[in-house]
Amino acid sequence: MDWIRKGCLALACMAMLSGCASSSLFVSYPSQAAKWKAELSHVPATAPSVPTESQGGQSSAHNDETVEQADASPKPAGLAPAPSRVSPVISKLEAATGGADGVLYLQELGRVSQLQGQREASRNAFAGAVAAYDAEDNSARIQVSSLAATGTAMLTNDNARPYIAPDYERIFTRAYQALNYWAAGDTTGTAVELRAAALEQRVAANKREKEIAKAAEDAEENNVDVSQFDGYFEGLDAVAGGVKSSFQNAWTFYLSALFWEAHREYNDALVDYKKALEIHPDSTLLKEDVERVSNAMKGKPVDGGMVAVIYEQSFVQARAEFSLPIPTVHGIFSVAFPTYALEDKPRPDSLRVLDTAMQPLAETEVMADVGALAAKDLKERMPGMLVRQTLRATAKYNLQKEANDNYGAFGAFATQIYNLVSEQADRRSWLTLPAYAQATRFTLPQGEHTLLLSTPQGDATLTVPVVNRGLTVIHVAAVPGRLITRVLPVQEGPL
Amino acid sequence: MQRLLTIMMLGAALVLSGCASKVDYGDAQGRETVNTDFGSTDLQMIAAKMVDDMLVFPPIVQLTQSRRPVVFVDSIKNKTTEHVDTESITDTIQSKLLNSGKFRFVDMTKVESVRQQLDYQSESGLVDPNTAAQMGRQIGAEFMMYGNFSSIVKREGSTKDVYYKFTLKLMNIQTGIIEWANEKEIRKTKTKSLFGL
C-alpha cells in the first residue's frame, strides 16, 4: 500500500501547489450556482426596499438617489448594526472568491449584488474580477502553479484547473461595471468601463485566430483526432446556432452606442452602432440607429428624448455533462465531456413596452444570445480539452492496470471506483448571466411618462423622466418568478 | 547536537522571516514600474513636463513678468480605459505653478462652500459686519486651463503596449485665444515572463 500512500501524497502536494480551492472538483458547479440563482428569485428581505425594484407591481422611479437615501436612513435605536444583512448564500459566495476559481465567484457575486441593488458590493466584486483578469494577462507564460493544477487535473478532472474567464464573460463584466457607474451617476467612470469593454472585444478578436490554430496544432501533435468526437457535439453546434464568434456582443456595443449618442459623441456612437449592425445585419432597429446618428453628425438631431430598455431574459443555461463509458480489459473507464444540450436552452421572448393607453411603443430584440456565445466558446476550447481528456484516460488506465496487477481485488476495486467518481466534466461558467441580452429604444417628448413593460415573466409599470435630447435607460432583468427593474439616471449633454 | 540545533534554528529563522510581511518607506519620486497601468511616475512626469514647459514659453514669461494672472482649472477629460483621477494630475500642476510665483488660481470646485460661508457671514448675524467678507469682490479668472487624457492600449500574445497622451491648454477666457498648449506622451510596454510561480 506504500504506492497508494505515495500517490496520495503527490496528489495532496499538487493540490496544495495549485491552490486547491477549486470548489468544483467533486461538486458540480451548476448545483452550487443554483443556490444564488434561487436567491435572486425572491425579493431580498435584506436589501434596501427601494421603489426601483418591483414585482409586477406599481413602481415609480426617477433615479437611483432613492437607494442612497434608503441606505443612509438611520436605523432604529437599540438595534445592533445588522450583520444579518448578508444572506448565508452571499457570504458563502464571498468566501469562495478567495480560491483558485475566485474570478468565477467574483463575477457571480458582482452580478447577484447588482440585481439585489447593492451597488457598492457589486462594484467591488467586479473590480476584483477585473484585477484577476489583469493578473491572468500579466502572468508568466509557464507557471509552476498552473502546471501543478494540470498535474492534479491529470489524476482527477479538469475542474482542478483554475478557472479562466472566457472573453464573453470579461466583456459582460465590463458592461455590468459600466452599469454600476451609470447608476451611481458617474459618467466618467461609465465611459471608462464602456471603452474597456470595447477594448476587450478588440483584443479577443485579435487573439482568437491564433489560439484556435494553436489548439488544433496541439491536437495534431498528440495524435488526437478531434473529428472522431464530432458526433457528440451536435448539441453544442445547435446551441451555438448562428453566432459567428464566441465573444462578439452586440448588446454591449449597443449600450455604449446609446451612451455616446446621449453625450453627443456621435463618432463613437456611430462606430458602435455599426459594429452592432455588423453582428446583426438584418436588424432594422440598428439600421435606423445608424441613420439617425449619421444625421446627427450632419447637425440634424432628432427632437424628443430617447428611452432605451435593456432587457436581460432568464439565466444562461449550464453546461451539461456527456459521459461515455469505455469498457476495457482492465475495467470500465468513463470519459466525461462538458457540452450544451439544445433542450436546456430557453426560447427568446421579447419585452413589449406600452403606454398608458395600451398602445405598443417598442419591442426588444435579441442583441446577444449568451447561451450561443458560451457554446461557441466551449467549442473553441474543445481541442485542448480533448487532448487533456485523452492523456487523462491514459493515466487512469495505467493506474488501473497497475492496481489490478499489484494490489489485489480491493486495490483494483478502489481504483475503479476512484476512476469513475473522479471523472467529472468541467461544467464551470458564469451562470447568472442572462440567456438573452435584449434591447430596444424609442423616443418620447420631454416630461414624465408612465410606461407598461410586458413580459411573459410578468408586467411592471414605471414612471420615467424623459429629457429632450437625453437618454433614459430602463434596466430590466427577468429572473424566474420575478421582474427586476430599475431606471438609470438620465444621460445628457457633453461628457 | 548543539550544532544541529543551531542549524535548525537558523533554518527556522530563514523560513519564518520569508513568511513575515514587511512594511517599508520608499522614495515617493522613485520610478514605479509595477505594471503598465497609470501610476505615480506617469503623474509626476506629466506634471513636471507641463509646468517646466509652460514657465519657459516666451509669451508666458512675458505675460507673467509684471503680474500674476488668475487661472481656473477646468476638468481634464479622461478618455482612457482606466479610472484615472485626473484631478490629482491638475492638482499637482496647479501646486507647482502656484509655487513658481507666476500664477494665481481660483478653485471652481469650492464655489458652493464659499457661497455658504459668505451667506453665513452676511446673513447669520453672528459675524461682525466689519470683518465679514463681502459679496461680489472675487477676482475673475483670466485664463482657463483644460485638457484631455487619452490612451491607446494594444494587447497581443505576451506583449502589452500602452500609449498615453496628456494634452493641456491655457485659454484666454475673454479673447478665446489659446495662449499655450503642450502634450506629454508616455509609452509603456510589458512583456510576459516565461516562467513564474
UniProtKB/TrEMBL annotation, chain B:
PROSITE patterns listed in its UniProt record: PROKAR_LIPOPROTEIN (PS51257)
Domain of life: Bacteria
UniProt keyword terms in alphabetical order: Signal
The keyword Chloroplast is annotated on this UniProt entry: no
GO molecular function: enzyme regulator activity
Signal peptide residues on this chain, from the entry's feature table: 1-22
GO cellular component: periplasmic side of cell outer membrane
GO biological process: peptidoglycan biosynthetic process
Pfam family, one: LpoB
Protein name according to UniProt: Penicillin-binding protein activator LpoB
Native source species: Alcanivorax nanhaiticus
Phylogenetic classification of the source organism: Bacteria, Pseudomonadati, Pseudomonadota, Gammaproteobacteria, Oceanospirillales
